[in-house]
Design a protein that fits this description.
Pfam families: NTP_transf_2. This protein is of the alpha+beta class. The protein contains 21 helices and 9 strands. Strand 3 (55-61) and strand 4 form a beta hairpin.
């Protein structure tokens, strides 16, 4: 570490004053690398369990200019996954180079080595579709620059072209692409000759308005990966997948009949297609990407061979839907990875039959996906069965496990991402906890009767659940994923708890339980188990 010890002491004072409930924190960036200058700010990452949104703020504390980045531990998997698929590597890079400031739960002890491994592995390789689309965009910009009468009028186009060219060079070469000064450092490390040619071409086009060097460099780069693409053909690679699954997004609204009709139409299509190839599938709900949309979207995951998806399924789904009316807007192939939460395909493949079975039960009757009573009954039964299967030898650990689930998920209830004021969040947390208490008191008798009744879960689902305790690949789950687990758990138990959490979270999403309400289920089951 090259950062000044006195600076670290000042940062610790800042954190104790403004982030006393932090989960962990580190300092990173130029001050750690020893490349800082008088204009450099100090990058501090604060990990929290009490927020649901990533945000950053510039703070002047005493003589320190602090760039503070707040990361919810609950969202870290998604953040690292986006880093991987986008190739940016921003968070991977910052965390891997971090110097630990506070880490009482050993969270960073496991996270930093994991991000160092990710950094060495590199970003997600470009798919055929991504290669194709990058070449289309670069070719279009290149032709604009080549045909420009007045170079000065194409300043932004040139900047955009250089941005895409450098991204493509790095991603195609298996490197992270990052941005700003870090991107040029990566370019130089990957191909020093390309780096010098690029800087020379940039100087030439801005200094002498000579585009020739940039045009030659760009053309040569594209030729290496398939050549210029002066046209755009959707039939080429736009509707292709690179893995053995197809994800369809249903853009939902408050029209329950239309949503239900759309689900039935999709199931009809799958049944027809299953005559040609083995197909498994499940529906689930998730928060939408659009922040101001209240309803959760519904997604369909179809697991089958990618060749069958690309050569048959996508085209036939488009044709099938063209003759349908009164259905939700559908988007496919939708970029969603159903595997990453389970740390690899082997674990996912072992657990997927649970999801297929639960989804089949949910869609077996028309109104189940919108039936709150059925959703809650199924959910509490699922937790009861989880106790029998996963905690058979340690039943006294079931209530701590339920508290762990609540601690991980309650933030989804009280933090809508619209407020950054601590007092407002604390008030919202207190208010929603009181709502849970009131709601439970009103439902207590019904919930008790439901919990103690015969399980409504299909036996085949329970059989597959029992096999989950025999998944040897659990040992390969990164330990950081067990955030908020009790410190006294063994490392293996922490990994198991993190996997159980993901299984339950996926199950509740298949039950179409809103993310903002999933913490209510472990809340009530713990009440019942504790005879509260």
């Amino acid at each position: 570490m090259k950062i000044n010890k006195k600076v670290v002491e000042e940062i610790m004072v800042f954190l104790s004053r403004y982030y006393p409930s932090q989960h962990a924190s580190l300092v990173t960036g130029s001050h750690v690398e020893g490349t800082n200058n008088e204009f450099s700010d100090i990058d501090v990452i604060v990990f929290t369990k009490d927020r649901n949104t990533v945000f950053n703020e510039m703070v002047l504390f005493r003589s320190l200019k602090l760039q503070t980045i707040i990361i919810p531990v609950q969202n870290l998997q998604e953040i690292l996954w986006v880093d991987y698929i986008s190739g940016q590597g921003t968070f991977v890079n910052m965390i891997s180079k971090g110097h630990i400031l506070f880490d009482e739960s050993d969270f960073l002890k496991y996270l930093i080595p994991h991000t160092k491994e990710l950094e060495l592995l590199g970003a997600k390789p470009l798919s055929d579709y991504e290669n194709y689309m990058a070449r289309v965009k670069i070719t279009s910009l290149l032709f604009d620059v080549m045909g420009a009468g007045d170079i000065d009028e194409f300043l932004y186009t040139i900047l955009h072209l250089i941005d895409l060219v450098t991204q493509f060079k790095l991603k195609a070469g298996g490197s992270w692409c990052s941005d700003g000064k870090y991107r040029m450092k990566l370019i130089k490390a990957l191909d020093e000759n390309f780096y010098h040619r690029l800087t020379a071409a940039t100087a030439e086009i801005y200094g002498n308005k000579n585009r020739e060097l940039l045009v030659d460099l760009t053309t040569e780069l594209l030729e290496e990966y398939g050549g210029l693409l002066p046209y755009y053909s959707k039939s080429n690679t736009l509707s292709k997948v690179s893995e053995d699954y197809l994800v369809v997004e249903l853009d939902t609204d408050s029209n329950i009949e239309r949503i239900n009709h759309t689900i039935q139409i999709l199931e009809e299509f799958i049944q027809n297609s299953a005559q040609h190839k083995k197909i498994k599938y499940y529906f689930f709900s998730s928060k939408p990407v659009i922040r101001d949309k209240a309803e959760q979207n519904i997604y369909l995951v179809i697991d089958t061979q990618k060749e069958f998806i690309n050569n048959f399924l996508i085209d036939h789904l488009e044709l099938f839907l063209s003759g349908q009316s009164n259905i939700s807007r559908l988007l496919f192939p939708f970029q969603y990875d159903p595997v990453y939460r389970f740390s690899g395909m082997k674990i996912y493949d072992r657990l997927a039959p649970v999801f297929y079975g639960i989804s089949k039960q949910m869609t077996a009757e028309k109104a189940r996906f919108s039936n709150t009573s059925y959703q809650i009954q199924f959910a509490v039964h699922f937790l009861k069965e989880a106790k029998k299967i996963w905690f058979e030898e340690q039943p006294d650990m079931f209530c701590p496990f339920l508290q762990y689930l609540f601690d991980c998920w309650f933030v989804f209830t009280y933090d809508d991402g619209l407020s950054f004021k601590t007092k407002e969040l604390l008030d919202s947390r207190k208010m929603n906890l009181e709502k849970f208490e009131t709601l439970y008191e009103g439902q207590k008798e019904t919930l008790l009767n439901s919990y103690n009744s015969k399980s409504i879960i299909d036996k085949s689902v329970l059989t597959t659940m029992k096999k989950s305790i025999q998944i040897h690949e659990v040992k390969d789950i990164p330990t950081y994923k067990a955030y908020l687990a009790p410190r006294d758990l063994s490392e293996m138990d922490k990994k198991c708890w993190s996997l159980y959490r993901e299984i339950i979270f996926k199950t509740f999403s298949i039950l179409f339980i809103d993310n903002r309400l999933i913490s209510y289920i472990p809340f009530v089951v713990k009440k019942i188990e504790s005879n509260d």
